[in-house]
Amino acid sequence: MNKHSDLKAARIVGGVHSDQRHDSAHKHVAGTAVYIDDMPEPAGTLHAGLGLSTVAHGILKSVDLSSVRAAPGVVDVLTYEDVPGENDISPSGMHDDPVLAEGKVQFHGQPIFCVIAETREQARRAARLAKIEYEELDPIVHIWGLDPEKDKQVTTPLTLKRGDAAAAIAASPRRVKGSMKLGGQDHFYLEGQVALAVPGEDDEILVYSSTQGPSETQHMVAHALGVPSHAVTIEVRRMGGGFGGKETQANQCAAIAAIAAKKFKRAVKIRLDRDEDMTATGKRHDFVIDYEVGFDEEGHILGVDYMFALNAGFSADLSGPVGDRALFHCDNAYFYPAVHAKSAPLYTNTVSNTAFRGFGGPQGMVGCERVIEEVAFAVGKDPLEIRKLNFYDAMGVAGERNVTPYHQKVEDCIIQRIVAELEESADYAGRRRAIAEFNAKNRFIKRGIALTPVKFGISFTKTESNQAGALVHVYSDGSVHMNHGGTEMGQGLHLKVAQVVAEEFQIDLDRVKITATTTAKVPNTSPTAASSGADLNGMAAQNAARQIRKRLTDFAADRYQIPADQVVFLPNRVRVGNQEISFNDLVKQAYIARVQLSAAGHYKTPKIHWDRAKGRGHAFYYYAYGAACSEVSVDTLTGEYVVERTDILHDVGRSLNRAIDIGQVEGGFVQGMGWLTTEELVWDEKGRLRTHAPSTYKIPLASDRPKVFNVALTDWSEAYEPTIHRSKAVGEPPLPLGISVLQALSDAVASVADHKVCPRLDAPATPERVLMAIERLRAETADK
Amino acid sequence: MSSAPIRNEIRFLLNGREVTVRDVAPDATLLDWLRLDRSMRGTKEGCAEGDCGACTVLVGKLTAGGLVYESVNACIRFLGSLDGCHVVTIEHVQPVGGDLHPVQKAMIDFHGSQCGFCTPGFVMSLYGLWMKDANPSDATIEKALQGNLCRCTGYEAIMRAARAISDYGKGASDPLAVERAAVIEKLTKLRDGARVEVGSGKARLVVPADVDDFAAVLEAEPKATIVAGSTDVGLWVTKHMRDISPVVFIGHLEGLRRISEKDGVITIGAGVTYTEAFDLLSQRIPALGELINRIGGEQVRNMGTIGGNIANGSPIGDTPPPFIALGATLTLRKGAERRTIPLEEFFIAYGKQDRQPGEFVEAVHVPVPAKDSRFAVYKISKRRDEDITAALGAFHLTLAADGTVAQIRIAYGGMAATPKRAAAVEAVLTGKPWTEVTVEAALEAYAQDFTPLTDMRASAEYRMLAARNLLRRFFAETQGGSEPIQVSRHQAA
């Protein structure tokens, strides 16, 4: 359908800084948006089912698959011996992530074999018939109890230091030392891991994979098949949620489907059942955070020492960089005069933990906010006072308090203004007083409130990932085909990038076609992660569009014999000297004149560098900021609670699309709140995950969101650096706004001991943990 | 033997057309049939256990009150149970040749979708709600969405959309409104009074013609799996891949779907769903209404039956403890024989109930508490809604004129291998003045009654502490006063 664009419009429809609905919204609500399992299968498609380890740690003594092979519909069973290339999909290059287990198993649920059958049902049923003998070894199930200095680590830890933290702490008037347990989180993307591999001629293969990192998946599939990357094409139109869980974790399904497809010369699909997905794929890392802080009587932090021990699981995966990002955010929005922080990515016999929205950053910030609480309780002040005392210097202030633990200068700090505005709009002081009155009068229900800030560093710390590519075609009718390396998982990335392209050409958004991400169009892309999608791909697409626009400008100037500066792109038309020509007509003329109307764009983030060995660098291009104020009511008899109200003020720079950004902020907050409240991963002593389905693993419902939920964006802010239209990244930064709920619960708990004792409420703060903290505080104060 | 005619195929309406399925396995799910056999892929699989709602469809059935549509989870709904029903999927929401439905328009305009995978399920749940209540309160919307998980939006945008649906007009072209008379006519025609028998051996299913026919079928095949709402048996198939043949579907049996009150006793037929029981129970015993709203999500309440909740004997079923506290009795039937026992005697041990081969639960009889008694039930779970109980306590107290405890019945779920009375606690309390001192003194006795387990839902320590505190809560609530004792999401109506 060739809609007629308005040639007199003052503005295009759907440019940047405009609220646009998600490009697939119509298809979402009609049920016509196609996810991989919805695609019509090629004739003869086979289905794969995984055989998972039933022990957490053991030697494979014998693997008898005869009953599996004999089961109805089974075509064959694959083991590690069927992997034609390397039996490894380790994203870290550590060679520690087998496609299928070889010789030993290292966690309960590790894939050992793969059944290929005519139907998925047959494959799943057959997988249960294997007779596997293990020589069981003692599993390491939890990281508590491990020594972060001595016990086995999966990769090299990081140390950040500035100043002499030990001396500063020793010299401080006040000191507190403590420890915190912080749980992990399952991604619970609604669409589980899935891949459909279609064999081509020679060594070629096309894999439809629900992956956030098509290039990485391409390389892993090539690696496992033993073919060059050019033989492998990965395509993904959309995912049903990712959240980091499909950054590396999609590779296993893609590799298995590809191996089987090549072996049987038939299309092969694998889609994990929810329980298998939760059992066999990695999650957010759980942490044990040890801290010691020195401070003065006012509550100024003078020195701090952290140990961030994280549960890597059985392999490195992304645990090194996740631990790094925890350290990068152990300052949250606060200046530490002296700091020493160390990570310890510990080996356990559990699934290998991975990227999850925030990538360790939220864990770093939770630890930091615990320290703030400790200081507040020690000096007898509201934690918000301590926060404000310790903020980095505001942007433009010529002070000394602006250097991070990794020696980067914070130049764009706007947290003071955000917190001040939120304090006012949420009436923090008034409600704090009302809560004190309420708590004095009520025996059973106690209320609590907390206002917590967020400062989140934007850039991949792996420098080479900070690049992106795009491919833009303008067809001779003036319609535009847009492609880039980013992937769509619901965050509206394709829409934002399309808005950027529409803006460059000054054409209505509906003239820009969004297309599936494929490694055949844009190569060597970075995973859509680290909140970078719009920043990187928007810039790359802008670059491509600008190349074409330049050619159109030069063509028009030449054709109409006017200076190039008299060629102006107006909405859906181009002013060429004294006349206006529709964009479509100009394009047509350019095509006839044999002008190239296709361009590949590229972008690399400037300024950033990072020396991991030295712990120094300009790790982040800029920071995104935000703050949340949450109030809770807690039942002191059972530990049950409700979130009464949350107010959020969040910074996305100059928003490309406020509707999309507000959705990211609301969704990120609720996901962060879920992580810290009801989402509890429980492993038993044998290393079996007991919460492997939504019946036992509880993500928030509509009825868990705050009763009053006010979300606003900082309309006044714009990125300090020349980002895409001065917008800022929005994927991850809102998630740690959920820390306000944990801290509000802690505040309510503290009221049972008259705010004299830091509750040290660990997370997730389930009703059980809340009640046990209340009981502990009551017992402690009763003793005194 | 029953004289019902026998039919060897399942017949129902799928969106706009009638379908007949001859080759249907007893464990075939509606979701797999839609996606694999019919290539209708708008309905998604998110969990395959009835907890996420991505597979939500509407099922219309003729009831005493006319044609009623309810949201259900297609992932655990067996195809064989749909005989004579109208199945409505996301593909049928959009008016033919028309614009989007008001529910869909609102979801788009208020940015209610992000990744979109859960969205068809949300649309179906909201559609089901909209048909019943075009201007729902927030509490009503949240209740209708308890069975739908969204991981992207944080729900706020979906709530905004849900509140706005009626602003998009009355949906005059709403397909189910337009077709209503024709659907009723077609469904009426499908009712032929036949017993349906499909398959043999390991792939056999029976849909009895009526309750007497069911009794006959079960006597003949005492090892058959009885499936009412399939909210539990569904998982035996999707998660445990158990063979359940032969299956007898009973959810449609009118004779088991009656709920009525006589002489102060409410009799609930074994096939009455939570949703169907809600009106009468919430009116007569309000605490049970509140409890029902915290069992599963809307889809599960539309499918799951109170009879099933009792018959499967789970120690964490939510209805047995309050029923036991109220002194409920249970009627079991085998062939034409019936017997009625106190409900608590039905639960013998973990996984063992007092049900003979060929016998089935026919009805539960729940006495309405006397006006001068106090009754309360409290459920504790990790997440408030759509979660399985960690511990649940039910209390039924009658005081004597002098303020002493004339009678108290206390029962718990989640504290033992079966739903269990706190006999020792009751003994300590009985005859004593109903005071804080008495209550505190009774807490010790919990150790005699219960030795709870630690599992993924709660530790033994928490269960014990919370169980005791529920007695404290009950006591506090009997004392009146304006002080809030529980946290609440919405002000009580």
TrEMBL record, chain A:
Keywords: 2Fe-2S, Iron, Iron-sulfur, Metal-binding, Molybdenum, Oxidoreductase
Keyword RNA-binding on entry: no
GO terms of molecular function: 2 iron, 2 sulfur cluster binding; iron ion binding; molybdenum ion binding; oxidoreductase activity
Coiled-coil portions: none
Aldehyde oxidase/xanthine dehydrogenase a/b hammerhead domain ranges (all copies): 30-138
Domain of life according to the entry: Bacteria
Pfam families cross-referenced by the UniProt entry: Ald_Xan_dh_C, MoCoBD_1, MoCoBD_2
Gene3D superfamilies: Aldehyde oxidase/xanthine dehydrogenase, a/b hammerhead, Aldehyde oxidase/xanthine dehydrogenase, molybdopterin binding domain
Required cofactor names: FAD; Mo-molybdopterin cytosine dinucleotide; Mo-molybdopterin; [2Fe-2S] cluster
PANTHER family xref list: ALDEHYDE OXIDASE 1-RELATED, XANTHINE DEHYDROGENASE
Family named by the database record: Belongs to the xanthine dehydrogenase family.
UniProt cross-references to NCBIfam families, sorted A to Z: xanthine_xdhB (TIGR02965)
Name of protein: Xanthine dehydrogenase molybdopterin binding subunit
UniProtKB/TrEMBL annotation, chain B:
Keyword terms of this UniProt record: FAD, Flavoprotein, Iron, Metal-binding, Oxidoreductase
Keyword set includes Flavoprotein: yes
SMART domains (alphabetical): CO_deh_flav_C
One Pfam short name: CO_deh_flav_C
Alphabetical list of CDD domains matching this protein: fer2 (cd00207)
Domain named 2Fe-2S ferredoxin-type: residues: 8-93
Domain FAD-binding PCMH-type: 198-371
Chain segments annotated as transmembrane: none
GO molecular function per UniProt: 2 iron, 2 sulfur cluster binding; FAD binding; iron ion binding; xanthine dehydrogenase activity
Protein name: Xanthine dehydrogenase small subunit
Gene this protein is translated from: xdhA
